[in-house]
């Protein structure tokens, strides 16, 4: 790859050159990450040996804590190495929609939005809110965020599906236990190298006033834009900008991304429908339960991974679930003999 990068004719094809340079940078980063882990491992092992020789328990404990952090980083890098799908390296859109149940499910949708925002920030990603529709009393009816950073879609892609919450309702004066459902949809940002043709005559464009909590987030003009792709029923909307023109441009980007994600899914299912039914949990299917009462447990229904600390999970500690779902998904495709096309 270094020989190709140093070829004086490389930039005759700018698109191919940029792709090669991105791959080279990713490989350099991966190698540097492994070397850094190896150095830190050796350093902390030496610290433990020194602490034990000198009888300094604090040094030993600090080094052991550092090794635990190192283990988590190593696990993350292992998953990063598995993210080789066509769009895995891209930024990603995440939509959250409340289910039936009014205030309960709208509050749950807001909790999910906060959970993914916290996870993204802890992972070093940037988050932009593109649109949000508030609930009547609390929470949100729906929201779309953009998570920006390398492998954002690769990490998030297994989160699409229905998420179930069981808890004592803070909105029930009789303190009864309620079950709420919200749906999550994840799809990759489409870069300029991917051509997605959409016939504008197949789309309906609506404008409306942006909704929000007030202040700078509220708009007095019809600047928010909603685009409906009539043949597929796909709907996207954006109210991030004050300019209707900018919101329309962003909505078109989101629609292209949704169409691209749908095509990736179609290709995968066509490759092996039986494997897809075993390894894919799509829209409308429950993937994870979050139980706060009568006991505390978060369980992924695809992989069996559990956590007895739902507060940590709801604060963004999602990596164990994501890692297991990605490994499950990839191993399922490997057993079926198909490539990871998305």
From TrEMBL:
Entry GO CC: cytoplasm
Primary localization class, coarse: cytoplasm
UniProt entry keywords in alphabetical sequence: Coiled coil, Cytoplasm, Methylation, Protein biosynthesis
Localization per record: Cytoplasm
Positions of the Prokaryotic-type class I peptide chain release factors domain: 209-225
One Gene Ontology MF term: translation release factor activity, codon specific
Origin superkingdom: Bacteria
Gene3D superfamilies, per database record: 3.30.160.20, 3.30.70.1660, Release factor
Post-translational modification: Methylated by PrmC. Methylation increases the termination efficiency of RF2.
SMART domains named among the record's database cross-references: PCRF
Pfam family, one: PCRF
UniProt cross-references to PROSITE patterns, sorted A to Z: RF_PROK_I
DNA damage listed as a keyword: no
Residues annotated with N5-methylglutamine modification: 216
Function: Peptide chain release factor 2 directs the termination of translation in response to the peptide chain termination codons UGA and UAA.
Similarity comment: family membership: Belongs to the prokaryotic/mitochondrial release factor family.
Name this polypeptide is given: Peptide chain release factor 2
Lineage: Bacteria, Pseudomonadati, Pseudomonadota, Alphaproteobacteria, Hyphomicrobiales
């Amino acid at each position: 790859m270094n020989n190709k990068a140093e070829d004086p004719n490389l930039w005759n094809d700018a698109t191919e050159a940029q792709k090669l340079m991105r791959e080279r940078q990713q490989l350099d980063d991966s190698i540097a990450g492994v070397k850094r882990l190896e150095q830190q491992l050796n350093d902390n092992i030496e610290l433990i040996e020194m602490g034990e020789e000198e009888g300094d328990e604090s040094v030993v404990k600090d080094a052991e804590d550092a090794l635990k952090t190192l283990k988590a980083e190593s696990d993350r890098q292992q998953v990063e190495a598995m993210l080789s799908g066509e769009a895995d390296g891209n930024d990603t859109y995440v939509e959250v929609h409340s289910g039936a149940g009014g205030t309960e499910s709208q509050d749950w949708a807001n909790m999910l939005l906060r959970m993914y925002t916290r996870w993204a920030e802890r992972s070093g990603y940037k988050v932009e809110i593109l649109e949000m529709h508030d609930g009547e009393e609390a929470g949100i009816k729906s929201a779309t965020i953009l998570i920006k950073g390398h492998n954002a879609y690769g990490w998030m892609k297994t989160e699409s599906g229905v998420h179930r919450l069981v808890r004592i309702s803070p909105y029930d004066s009789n303190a009864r236990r309620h079950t709420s459902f919200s749906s999550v949809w994840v799809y990759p940002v489409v870069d300029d190298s991917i051509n997605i043709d959409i016939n504008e005559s197949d789309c309906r464009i609506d404008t409306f006033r942006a909704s929000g909590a007030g202040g700078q987030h509220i708009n007095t003009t019809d600047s928010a834009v909603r685009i409906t792709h009539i043949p597929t029923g796909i709907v996207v909307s954006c109210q991030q900008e004050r300019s209707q023109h900018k919101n329309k441009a962003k909505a078109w980007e989101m629609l292209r991304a949704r169409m691209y994600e749908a095509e990736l899914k179609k290709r995968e299912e066509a490759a092996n429908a039986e494997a897809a039914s075993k390894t894919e949990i799509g829209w409308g299917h429950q993937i994870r339960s979050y139980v706060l009462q009568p006991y505390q447990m978060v369980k992924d229904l695809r992989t069996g991974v559990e956590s007895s600390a739902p507060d940590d999970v709801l604060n963004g500690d999602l990596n164990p679930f994501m890692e297991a779902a990605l490994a499950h998904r990839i191993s399922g495709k490997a057993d079926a003999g198909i490539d990871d096309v998305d």
